[in-house]
Amino acid sequence: MTASVEEIRAEVKKLLDEGAVKYVIGYRNGSAGPFAAPAFFTGAGEADELVWDPTCFHNLARFLADERREDVCAPEAEEDGKKPVGVVVKGCDSRAVAVLLQEKFVDRDAVYLIGVSCEDGGVIDEGKLARKLGTAKVEKIEFGVDGGFVVTTDEGPIKIESADILDDRCVECRAAYPVVHDVVIGEQVDRKPEEPYGSLDEIESLAPEERWEFWERELGKCIRCYACRSICPMCYCDECVADTIAFAVTADTTADEKAQKIKWVERSPDNSENFFYHLVRAMHLAGRCIDCNECERACPVDIPLRLLNKKLEKEAKELFDYDVGFDPDVPSLISSFRDEDPEDFIR
Amino acid sequence: MEKTLKKDAFAEWLKKLPSYDVYVPVEDDGRFNYEIVGNAGAIDESFTNAVVGPKKVVFPQREVLLRFNSTNEKAPEVEEVLPEEKPAVVFGVRPCDARAVTLTDKVFGGDFADPYYWRRRNNTTLIGLVCTEPPSANCFCTSVGGSPAGKDGLDVVLTSLGDRYYVETLTTRGEKVVSDGGKVFGEPAADDKKAAEKVGTEAAAKVERQVEGVNDLTENLRDMFDSPFWDEESLSCIRCGICTYLCPTCHCFDINDEVLVPVPLTGERVRTWDNCQFPDFTMHSSGHNPRPNRASRLRQRILHKFRYFVENFGDYQCTGCGRCIIYCPVGIDIVDVLDKTAAYER
Ligand code: SF4
Ligand code: SF4
Ligand code: SF4
Ligand code: SF4
Ligand code: SF4
Q: What pLDDT is attached to residue A278?
């Protein structure tokens, strides 16, 4: 089962009606097909357009970085601008917010978290759906009553087992119930995935040379559109090594500073540069990636980026017993040191 | 010149083109791409459209413009590097993508013809494949002057008629690859031409998406530069490179020197794709950026395609291929945006 969209709408309507939030980031129906799209709700009257279905993949915590930097939906009255922003968060999205709180990128009172429990469900994988249905034209994707999905195509509705099209991140999800929230819609369901890192088995079983070949082939497809970075809620740096302006230029930046800038990575999409970009990104996400799988979903050329990030999540767990995004009050993996931390991997 | 080609003779044809780099659409986990193949048996019947179109053959993402090296601390010696004169033939080109090449022709042509582009372009033969059915629900070629059976930019057009293709040759480059094929082609039957035309007309009727009021578009966009419309429509845009890099008509590039050896200085001057959604695209060295945010970047993408390009070249810079809609990770939909401009209070 799943949380009811009416309850989510009622909550959003109430918040906007009472003027408790600046605006709410949620989901609407996309205009170009059966998938939902992120939406910004500013008035209570719009709340009926909010949707909640198995295509609400997007991690809306991503938009908190924009909110911090620019005036998004700036209200007319200045004091309204200081109100929190309402965000609809699934379990994984709430863990992204937890990391942003932990890193003090976002203040707790700057956000009002409308948690939605995925219960025993989750979101679908577009690729799995396409493989399952072939060329049939999908019109609508809904939660079924007993865990599966109901997909309506031009030939009518069909029931599809959860296991067939559920996204890998949901298959391996340990916390479908939002960990930080101001309100939660939906029940808390205990989820203990049998193999929380099962999707790594295949790649881990390969010999190093085979793994090298695998990544040479996969990363060789990369067109460096940076969608994986741009959609990631954790990739909020002002200065990303990937941009050719790898430092924030302001009117005060001297000519000397500009001349001395280091170009970390060339624009050329060849494997030397592609590997550099992806390895830097993966390392910068160690202990921070909460496995929302948005990077892999966004990738137009279908590179299995989740494998990189999941591997680092597993390392953090096995080496440091560190769980990402479960508690905003613990020190972060990268910035903390404990006497009992292992060091046998340092050579 | 009209011929027919049995689908199972396709491989034979390819064998007759040994001097060419032969690109065919190849499937990898549900997505197609044009790849150079030695010998392909056929064009995969499930071929929809490639993620990156044949733009990458005439305008590759990375092009070396020149090499430099300095010895004995003298000024570097510079060597011009033009693309190799190697003929390429691309099979399975969708009409929207071929038409897009006629638009990049305008950009790289004219008074300042780009020698790198033209060296590749003049060596590239585009073999079209009429869409028997719009390959995507987001195709809208018919709104912007194209058609699933359009011929602009193509050298040869193939139309599927059951177990064979109806083959129309349109240019001298096309004649070359067809005559190289020699006996693999047959003569068309009396009503093949009609049958092929019918395939195109039927497909055109199935293109579902249409831009409303497309004739007033450029005029409507003329007064919208300062409109809050762009803020509203771009709220969820993450400023990635998908919509522009995948667009068959987008042609912006950046030029950088890539140093291979610092001492003695040796390296390459390289041109790579660039795009108007990235933060450094219009960044001035003063630190000022005239397009600092998502609204100004979405505005640029739309106005370039539907206003500035019309003013400069008399055509929309969009052929309705639908890629920017299909692959945008946050559902920004160019047809929807254009539709809304018509109704927007200016
Ligand atoms: S989204 Fe995919 S193609 Fe784009 S930069 Fe990331 S890995 Fe490369
Ligand atoms: S790296 Fe990918 S999976 Fe991890 S938080 Fe970022 S977008 Fe989500
Ligand atoms: S836009 Fe038109 S020409 Fe292009 S693939 Fe779709 S139907 Fe074919
Ligand atoms: S419109 Fe979509 S694809 Fe284009 S830059 Fe914005 S998010 Fe990326
Ligand atoms: S703007 Fe979009 S639909 Fe038009 S040609 Fe470019 S990618 Fe295709």
A: 97
